Amino acid sequence: MKKLISLIIRFVPRKYLQRVSGIGLKVLAVLYAGNNVLCPVCNGTFRKFLPYGRINPRPNALCPKCQALERHRLIWLYLQEKTDFFKKPLHVLHIAPEACFMKPLERVHGDNYITADIESPLAKVKMDIHQIPFNENSFDAVLCNHVLEHVQDDIKAMREIHRVLKPGGFAVLQVPFFNPIPDKTFEDFSITDPRAREKAFGQDDHVRKYGKDYPQRILRAGLKAVESNFVNEKTDEERKRFGLVKGETLYLGVK
Fold first, then answer.
1. Could you give the strand order of the β-sheet that contains 165-172, starting from the edge strand earlier in sequence?
2. What is the DSSP string of 25-83?
3. What is 84-230+246-254's CATH number, 3.30.2310.20, 3.40.50.150, 3.20.20.10, 3.30.310.50?
4. How far is the C-alpha of 148 from the C-alpha of 158, rounded, in Å?
5. What does pTM read for this prediction?
6. Separation of alpha carbons 47 and 167, rounded Å
7. Contact yes or no for 189/207 (Cβ under 8 A)
8. Could you tell me which of 248, 250, 251 has the C-alpha nearest to residue 61?
9. Which residues pair with 170 in a beta bridge?
């Protein structure tokens, strides 16, 4: 199973995976039936989550019902417990929307929940994150999860997010970190070969490897950088139940 999932996500383009992955996972959801783990996004229970990852798949990572990963479950629980995100309808911009979030967030926020991406077939709006086509002060929240490592100018993208956020609004700005984490974010746009990019940045479609200076990059965009250790507030039993990674930091930008 680990090898099959690794091959699929490495070699099948994301836009095609988004169209068909839900069908296969519905079968696996039946095969993985149980009550050892709980996905807070879809409330599905299973004997364990599926492995997931391009090279060395992580065990107990992917929800077979809604496709939520560890980071999605962490974001969901944080928004549920630490914000008013689910308490009332908000204006929300979801960049490069994940399938696991779309239907439940649309139920909460209705037509004010806007999904946007440069190529995703799931998104309502086709959009380049460097030029967000909305007026300033339009959104209460922006979800931008594992996007900035793919874009040409992450500072410009975050400045656009700052522009469209309302005063007091926040953005979830998760990015991947690969060990050993450098002190400074590494970029080299002369590296274009997919194998060389995978070696330099951790994945062949990434253009930078984030370092310990990531909060400073958020600040450069005009946002207040927030580093949350929310996951460590959970007990070991809760982390195991929800399939969370101990020590994973949540990064937010507040206007």
1. 125-126, 113-117, 92-95, 139-144, 165-172, 250-254, 224-228
2. HHHHHHHTEEEEEE-TTT--EESSPEEE-SSSPEEEEE-TTT---HHHHHHHHHHHHHS
3. 3.40.50.150
4. 8
5. 0.88
6. 43
7. yes
8. 248
9. 141, 254
Cα 206 to Cα 167: distance, rounded to the nearest angstrom? 31
Lookup: tokens for 34: 């149980």
45: tokens are: 């229970």
The CA distance from 160 to 253, in Å, is: 12
Confidence of residue 24 (pLDDT cuts 50, 70, 90): low
Query: 227 is written with which tokens?
Result: 């580093």
- Token pair 């806007």 is found at 114
Q: Parse the chain into domains and list their residue ranges.
A: 2-68, 84-230+246-254
CA angle 153, 79, 40 (to 5 degrees): 110
Given this model, what pLDDT does residue 167 score?
A: 98
Residues whose CB is less than 8 angstroms from the CB of residue 74 and which lie 6 or more positions away in sequence, other chains included? 230, 231, 244, 245, 248, 250
Cα separations in angstroms, 153 against 96, 158, 181, 196: 16, 9, 20, 20
Q: What is the pLDDT of residues 50-70, one digit of tens each?
A: 988 877 888 999 998 999 999
Considering just the CA atoms, what is the radius of gyration of the chain in Å?
18
Query: Per residue in 132-172, pLDDT tens?
Result: 999 999 999 999 999 999 999 999 999 999 999 999 999 99
